[in-house]
Amino acid sequence: MSSLDARLGVLRGTTPPIPHNARTLAALTANPSCDRRSLLDAAGIDKDALAAHLDLPRPLRKSQLALDYGIAFERKVTAQAGAPLVPLLRQALGLTLPEVSYEDVNSVGSDDDKSSPQLRHARTRSLILSAAHRRSDPRTLLDHPVLRLTVAGHQAYLEPDVLAFQRDGVFHVVEIKSFPVIHGQPDPIKATAALTQAAAYVLALRELLADDGLPPDRVSDTVILVNPRNFTRHPTATPFSAHKQIKNLSRHLGRLRRLPELLDKLPPATTFDLAPGPDQKPTRPRNELVAALATVRPHYTPGCRHHCDLAFHCRTEARNQGRTAALGTAVRDDLAGIDTIATALDLTDGRMHPSRDKQDITQALRHAQRIHADLQQDTA
Amino acid sequence: MIQLTSLLRMRAAHTGNVQRASQLRHLHLSDQPLMLLALKQTGPAARPLAVMLGTDPHRPRLLLAPPSGSTAPMLSALADAVTAYIDACQRHREHLPATSNKPARWRYTDAPQILVPNPQTVQHLKDLGDDLRFRSVDESPGSRAVQRLGHWLTYLTDRADLPGSAALIPMTSFLGMHWVSGQSPQEDEDLATLLAWIDPPRHAASGRDAAHTAEDPATHRPAGPATDAAFDNDHLAPLFDAYARARRRALGLEQTRTLQELDRLLATYLQPTWDLMWQAYTLLQALPEAKGTARRWDHERTAFTDECTYLTQDGRPRPARDNAVAAAVRLACMEHAAAAFAAGRTAGDPFVRAELRTTGKAFGGPVTTIDPEHTLHGPSGRTQWRPRLTVFTSDPVLMEPGQLLACHTHPSARYKICEVTPGDGDTLVGLEITAGMGTMDRPNHAVLPDAGAFLVFTIAPAPYRMPEFPARDQTPWTHGGPPAGQPYHSDEDEGEEEQ
Ligand code: SF4
Q1: Partners of B406 in the beta sheet?
Q2: Which of B184, B230, B354 lies nearest to residue A375, judging by beta carbons?
Q3: Does residue B339 lie within any of the structural domains?
Q4: Most buried of the four, A306, A337, A352, B415, by CB within 10 Å?
């Protein structure tokens, strides 16, 4: 075990690390400036458990109805050895008929539902490499392959929905998503999130091929999203360029290497251990946990609730400290350089003298204040 | 520069109390709006779960769609309710005499106004409209009414995109024009917390405290259309399962019982939001109307009258997606509406002017000198009357000489910047009046300000000319139905068996 791992292990305590998946990797790009989150994620700490122990609302809780709907749609698309999927991909990718063959990597080596990720990864690897080197008939569609991506020095197993391989030697990542594409257009936020997840698969696939000396362009930047069409449950396949998301994600994965710096800043003996008792219930005193969180710098925005379990903790903290960021990015950007509301208002009302670098912004604040005062007089 | 709203947001956060923004209402409020809350089912694109609607605060009506199976009966009831409301707006007409550029016309004296909690509900209704307006009309009772509902939803949600329209208004945005809370704009999209800031219950120490209480997960109910995961998992999923089981085994009684239970559950779920909607309505109604508000409502009634005429004469559904020309027309209309609404609000509302002064889009100050006799010699050698004035302002002036300006006191007058002379923190701006003052022979002296008058100048809106497009009755593509070669499928029934 590396010393980095040992240090992260101390932060996490006794529970095993939460493995990364494409969703958590995608979330890394949502708020990369947040040290708090980077550290907790790198250490594989269960943020949801943390939030639950702190008695916080859990903004990322999943709706069972949404999950059921998603599973039903995916089943429909991949039923009968991908029969509904094949014509869609044939059209979206220009596959020709004889190329299509289908392999489900879900159950390798046993009749059980799922084999271990290691085993399925090995099977995926051999299928992909033999297709890439044309050693066998290309398996054109791989259902639920298992890929591996190195994240901060660790292997994360990732499970794309489908990989498609073309005769011209290029792989495509295919993601099945249950949000609709209405008149050819998906919800842009959901589409971006899906493409960011797909970017993780593209990177993992490139890593696999690179190990075997194959160039990255054997995996296309173009990702196929399969969604319900309009208001139906019929699937439609749309190609999207994930170029931006791939670049973004690989940059953020690179940044995870600055972890040692973050760790060096922590007071000795900092830990986020929930100290589960014999009944698995956390026993860690809450105030200790809150104090431990306070040692790592957050970067709160109201958007945190869409991607981070700790959103309500960080919001309370930002509000208690009177941070401008709690009022949204418009206010925060307007006041660039001033972190707290109290400072901003003290400068506005002349209770505080601006330092040289705050002179312009102070003038702007006082200008806004003057205009507001005029307005009050007019309407009074 | 610091926006006035940013400063107010900080003041609100600091004091714990909401700050007033505009104190004049720029959108008409009907005496009888149709209040409408919608819940959609988690998962499918636009499958309704329930709608609560009505014009009487004490008698909301709840329409429920079963968790699985056909939504047709519910949609047909919704269509009837909405159509009845819209029909009631067509009871009286007024006659409009001919003007110089328009023949005599008539229009309805009323128009529908639907109030919904938030922009997300507008989007949901848009999706629903998209789905329903292409449904085929068949023998089944109500199918024509449902298609018509789709048409109206599309009309209303299109109007909602036009700044200044009051046909379909999301309440949180409406409130946000008049009050600035001490929470972030994202949090303002939650009706319950926003209203707690604005109008806290008497016993609350502050708006902030009230918002904090309103957020309590035990009592907080999101205003839709999405239900939250906790509600889905704890309440809806078990009932949905029970319903699906009963349906599979064809236990009619059991199905009815589950639906009744769902009805009770959702009625209780929506009731708090229903009450908040009327509370918000009362607050907004108490605001005095701005000057342009009635005129904007006149336009709304014209648009509504046109739509009714179109429906009786043609009635084909709008295409799924506008083609290039239709999209260009739509964009031009939106830009025009936005510019007109902005200009109207600026002219009529001191708060809007103050806000523009903090973003560099306007400056204001007293008139220091005025030269009412100033003349110019135009290119043709004719003498032109161009009165000049100087304004002293402490606002930063980011505009260049040559810029054309408008002023709230005489909306049709135009002023050209001749000179900008920055001083120590203040600026002198030399202006020339270029329009609105009449001619040498027939001068309009009213436009000449007195020295000392406080004026605010904004960038003049670019003169608007609707680009040349074919007239509406010659544009089959604006109402042509789905583009040819793309058959449209709706799966009202198919796929349901999977549940
Ligand atoms: S909620 Fe907190 S920890 Fe999570 S990303 Fe935001 S600031 Fe960072």
Answers
A1: B458
A2: B354
A3: no
A4: B415
Q: Is the pTM of this model over 0.90?
A: no
The closest of B230, B202, B235 to B216, measured between CA atoms, is B230
Query: Are both B308 and B201 inside the same structural domain?
Result: yes
What lies within 8 Å, CB to CB, of B218 at 6+ separation is none
Question: Tokens 């006149």 label which residue?
Answer: B298
Token output for A5: 């791992």
Q: Which of A338, A351, A371 to mutate to test the interface with B (most CBs of B within 10 A)?
A: A371
Bridge partner list, A143 = A104, A162
Atom from ligand 1 closest to the CA of residue A299? 7
CB atoms within 10 A of CB A377: 8
**To the nearest whole angstrom, how far is the Cα of A320 from the nearest Cα of chain B?**
11
Q: What is the ipTM of this complex?
A: 0.87
For residue A335, which residues of chain B lie inside 8 Å, CB to CB?
A: 2, 6
Residues 325-384 of B with CB under 8 A from A: 350-351, 354, 357-358
Helices in B249-323 by DSSP H: which ranges?
A: 252-285, 293-313
Between A18-32, A210-224, B222-236, the lowest mean confidence (pLDDT) is in A18-32
CATH code, B392: 2.40.30
Same structural domain, B248 and B176: yes
Q: What is each CA distance from B322 to A110, A180, B119, B316, B423, in whole angstroms?
A: 53, 19, 22, 14, 53
For A238-291, write each residue's pLDDT tens digit: 999 999 999 989 888 887 767 778 888 888 888 888 888 888 888 888 898 999
Partners of residue A171 on adjacent β-strands:
A165, A219
The residue ranges of every structural domain in chain A are 3-61+266-334, 64-253
Q: For residue A340, what is the nearest residue in chain B, using CA coordinates?
A: B10
- Please report the number of interchain residue pairs, chain A to chain B, with beta-carbon separation below 8 angstroms: 156
